[in-house]
Please model this.
Amino acid sequence: MNQFEKKYGKYAVRELSLKLVVLYIVGYVLYYIRPSVFSLLTLDVTALLNGQFWRVLSWLLVPPDAGSSLFFVAIMLFFYYSIGRSLERVWGDFKYNVYIFLGILLTVLSAFLWALFMRAGGLSPVEFAAVTKYGAAYFSTYYINMSIFLAYALTFPEAQVYLFFVLPIKVKYLGWIDAGFLVLSMITGNSAQRFVIAAALLNVLLLFLRSRSWMAYSPGQVRRRQQFRRSVQAGRRNAGTGTDSVHRCAICGRTEKDGPELEFRYCSKCEGGLEYCQDHLFSHVHVKKGEKPHMMRT
Model:
């Protein structure tokens, strides 16, 4: 993933959480002004195959919990924007992009797989069109948001939120409730729900398998990460101006002045606030305070 980020990170969509919220706001406005237009936006596979290609993306305009009160909508949008921004800050724009766009792709694929499953049941073309039109409502951003919250719970399990604005509860417990609700919905729901929930859970599973190093950040680690990013920005401003370097690798001694492409990270397992360049971050031996940093034996 890090190699892909170095190569394609410049193409990542910045402020993706904000852009998703803007899409939801547009969707809510459409719902209150002209709700009939929603039938042209859903992920209806039959309509899509009949030439309505915009449905591949237009379903993103269908917001979760459409029809709720404006107060609940405002709270929901603010909440998902907050947790999305937290993930963006910790993971970085590229990794967050990968997670969101993979979830969107899996949702679209699940809609097609469900349609094939229903078609294999021997439905007539008219019955198939009616079934896919009905089932399209389940392939929505609702489960995308559920997967975002699960990712947040995996990344910040010890963080606290205030349930009903009063009761403090750790996010990891809400994550278990969220996961349990999804599993229960798979068991008791219809076939369309099973397919779209499976897509959301698959995205979370892939996240867990490929990116455990991104997750389970303590509040202290998050603060240190933010401080490091501020230091990186300060170092880049100072590089080439004759001021002292800000970052120095504990192994090779290189600083940000040795090359603008160099990246530096603090190791959370080394005592003493040691910093390493990208070439030595994963190849050094973790040391205790006062010990001399050294490479792994090969």
